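Researcher: Sequence recovery benchmark, item below. Answer with residues only.
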């Protein structure tokens, strides 16, 4: 629960609510959030949006620097030109930029409050995308779209932080649903942390699924581990896929592509970042806290990474040198000394999150000077992102279906006309 205090101390773990207590609290908070809708006042200029007929026009919420969006764009490209060619051109920005507009997915609008993340998004996505940094709770109405994406914020769900049933950040998903009711996309995709499924004895997740379904969607959900799809880290995330009830399409998650029993084994740290040894780039420096040293933070070269977190100070240790050693309860040490161990660099964690090397991240000032505070802003962007290749795996079935759906003449492009009518109403 949240106490009326300043700082981190204001957050306390949720008490042992009964399921009925959780349900009542959820309804109370949902009603409070709905009342907040009445004060929404920011308007999007629908006339300024760049729709393309014959493509799935995509709207992105809580977009961050764009990991989920980039994975979708790549999946939409492979559905048109083939996977081998798409993955090949994706490695270089100039080659990718020449061909990326062939993707069946076309992003028209992206929203996020994080200034540095939206700057990164601007640098890496086509200029016609309308990037909005306003508070989603203050947006009066959302434009029409064929698909809506978003990883709504998760601090109140995360097992790594305070477990707060009544954290107001847990209810931002209602604005995602408000967007669905206005945009009426064929499909939506939402991503969140594993902890969402267990908070409040599972009642929070059950309520979220029910609320999304009530917006007019058939819901498919699954807990996925990124390493099963070619991402070099263990990272479990919940994916919610919604298909509008009037659409004859059943989403099916792709089976895992990597693993000990697969032709493709797990991608290791050696596979992902060994070539960066001579030029790793900037990394967060400073001492290691007692909490940091309470467990192993160092994987070997032959393993996938630990989960990349949204914090430079919490970045995993580079795999070079001797392994860490457990010397007591909740106590680990560097057997070869702290001076011989460093945190993973931003270049390395971007690789581990499967961003291409050409993807640029803003530190806010971007004047070439770097320090821990600026590095932390980049770590936050990368750690909060959906790994690009996990997004790609989730998007592939949708992209392949979208191509056929458009060819079948079931797709109707009335987006611009409807938006113009509503904007002038």
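Model:
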């Amino acid at each position: 629960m949240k106490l009326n205090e300043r700082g981190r101390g204001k957050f306390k773990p949720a008490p042992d609510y009964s399921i009925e207590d959780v349900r009542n609290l959820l309804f109370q908070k949902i009603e409070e959030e709905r009342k907040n809708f009445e004060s929404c006042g920011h308007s999007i200029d629908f006339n300024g949006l760049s729709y393309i007929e014959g493509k799935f026009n995509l709207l992105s919420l809580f977009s961050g620097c764009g990991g989920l969006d980039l994975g979708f764009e790549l999946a939409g490209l492979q559905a048109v030109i083939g996977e081998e060619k798409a993955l090949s051109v994706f490695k270089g920005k100039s080659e990718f930029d020449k061909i990326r507009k062939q993707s069946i997915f076309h992003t028209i609008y992206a929203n996020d409050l994080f200034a540095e993340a939206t700057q990164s998004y601007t640098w890496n996505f086509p200029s016609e995308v309308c990037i909005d940094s306003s508070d989603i709770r203050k947006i009066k109405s959302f434009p029409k779209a064929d698909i809506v994406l978003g990883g709504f914020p998760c601090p109140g769900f995360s097992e790594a932080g305070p477990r707060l049933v009544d954290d107001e950040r847990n209810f931002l998903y209602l604005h995602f649903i408000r967007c669905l009711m206005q945009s009426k996309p064929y499909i939506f995709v939402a991503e969140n942390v594993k902890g969402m499924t267990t908070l409040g004895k599972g009642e929070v997740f059950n309520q979220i699924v029910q609320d999304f379904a009530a917006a007019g969607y058939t819901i498919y959900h699954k807990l996925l581990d990124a390493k099963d799809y070619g991402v070099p880290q263990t990272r479990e995330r919940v994916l919610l896929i919604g298909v509008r009830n009037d659409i004859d399409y059943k989403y099916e998650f792709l089976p895992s592509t990597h693993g000990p029993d697969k032709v493709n084994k797990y991608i290791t740290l050696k596979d992902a970042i060994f070539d960066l040894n001579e030029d790793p780039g900037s990394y967060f420096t400073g001492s290691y806290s007692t909490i940091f040293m309470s467990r192993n933070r160092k994987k070997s070269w032959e393993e996938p990474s630990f989960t990349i977190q949204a914090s430079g100070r919490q970045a995993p240790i580079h795999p070079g040198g001797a392994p860490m050693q457990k010397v007591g309860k909740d106590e680990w040490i560097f057997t070869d000394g702290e001076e011989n161990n460093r945190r993973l660099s931003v270049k390395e964690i971007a690789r581990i999150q499967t961003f291409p090397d050409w993807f640029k991240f803003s530190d806010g000032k971007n004047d070439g000077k770097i320090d821990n505070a600026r590095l932390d802003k980049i770590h936050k962007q990368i750690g909060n992102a959906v790994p690009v290749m996990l997004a790609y795996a989730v998007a592939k079935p949708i992209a392949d279906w979208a191509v056929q759906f458009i060819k079948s003449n079931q797709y109707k492009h009335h987006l611009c006309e409807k938006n113009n009518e509503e904007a002038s109403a």
